[in-house]
Amino acid sequence: MVVAIYRRAAKISHVHPDMVEQFMADGFIALRGVVPASTVSACVELLWAEIGLSPDDPSGWTDPVRWVYGMGQPPFIQAMNVMPLLEACEALAGPGRWMPRGPMGAFPLRFPNEKEPDGLGWHCEGSYKPEGESWYWTNVDSKGRALLALYLFTDIDEGDGPTRIRVGSHMDVPEVLAPYGEVGAPGEALGPPVDAASANRPVAYATGQAGDVFVCHPFLVHAAQANHGTRPRFLAQPAIMPNYPYRLDRPDGELSPVERTIKEALAGPTA
């Protein structure tokens, strides 16, 4: 309903042209303080209840990471439908080319720990599973994914295990994916070449305050890291799903920013 109401409005007020240009250059933008504090608090309370632990009892924080999936209670729906995010999806994925979410999806909750958990390699997100496959796959048209969002549900600084981001790496991935065509390839095959292709990119960190949201290109290369700080790090990483597949054969004036970057990356540097 929120999305339907939004799409009847003609004006986008939270996403400025310079933010779109930044997204196209860096592969992400940060929307600061867009989830109300009351919504954040309600979500955090539900996440603690889901894992059966307490924010006041560190003795229970024995695992370096606890994964939570789903979470479709009203506070999470409210967080997914904050107007700046809806406007960013519309501006970056293209008008009407993305779908609102129900449950928020996957939450890697990282706790202070000296252990190094698995899954810390550089990668871009997979989005679909061909029949009989166990890994998520990715193709050059970003089948099954319009954008990636990173929701900060706690304050996160560089000591709290923030997601690492290779700035501009979304421009390295299409060339890696192109040989696989529409079929695509699984994450296990793509990890090493994606890592190698983006290795020279500068690294940024998804840090900020609870209520911030990073909106990321589907091909942005990123990696988790252990939390060696003193406080838990609660993050959500919902996929923004496509309403229609991305297409690189549209007239240039109809290409979304995501489509434009993929097309430009495949064309290579201009003289």
Summarize the structure in words:
There is one protein chain. Mean pLDDT is 92; it is low at 1-12. The chain has helices at 2-7, 17-26, 37-51, 74-80, 83-93, 173-177, 187-197, 257-267; strands at 28-31, 65-70, 98-99, 105-110, 137-138, 147-152, 164-166, 185-186, 203-205, 213-216, 222-223, 235-236, 239-242. It has 8 helices and 13 strands. The protein is 28% helix and 17% strand. The protein has one domain (18-266): Sandwich (Jelly Rolls). The chain is an alpha+beta fold. The strands form 4 sheets. Strands 1, 3, 6, 10, 12 and 13 form a 6-stranded antiparallel sheet that branches. A 3-stranded antiparallel sheet has the order 9-7-11, with no helix packed on it.
Uncertain spans, ≥5 residues at pLDDT below 50? 1-12
What is the mean pLDDT?
92
CATH fold-level assignment = Jelly Rolls
The total of beta strands comes to 13
Treating each run of at least 4 consecutive H or I residues as one helix, how many helices?
8
Question: In percent, how helical is the residue content?
Answer: 25-40%
SSE class: alpha+beta
N-to-C order of helices and strands: HHEHEHHEEEEEHEHEEEEEH
Give the domain tally. Answer: 1
How much of the sequence lies in strands comes to: 15-25%
What's a concise summary of this model?
With 271 residues, the protein is an alpha+beta fold. It has eight helices and 13 strands.
Tell me the layout of helices and strands:
Blueprint: H1 2-7, H2 17-26, E1 28-31, H3 37-51, E2 65-70, H4 74-80, H5 83-93, E3 98-99, E4 105-110, E5 137-138, E6 147-152, E7 164-166, H6 173-177, E8 185-186, H7 187-197, E9 203-205, E10 213-216, E11 222-223, E12 235-236, E13 239-242, H8 257-267
Antiparallel strand pairs: 1-10, 2-4, 3-13, 5-8, 6-10, 6-12, 6-13, 7-9, 7-11
Helix pairs in contact: 3-4
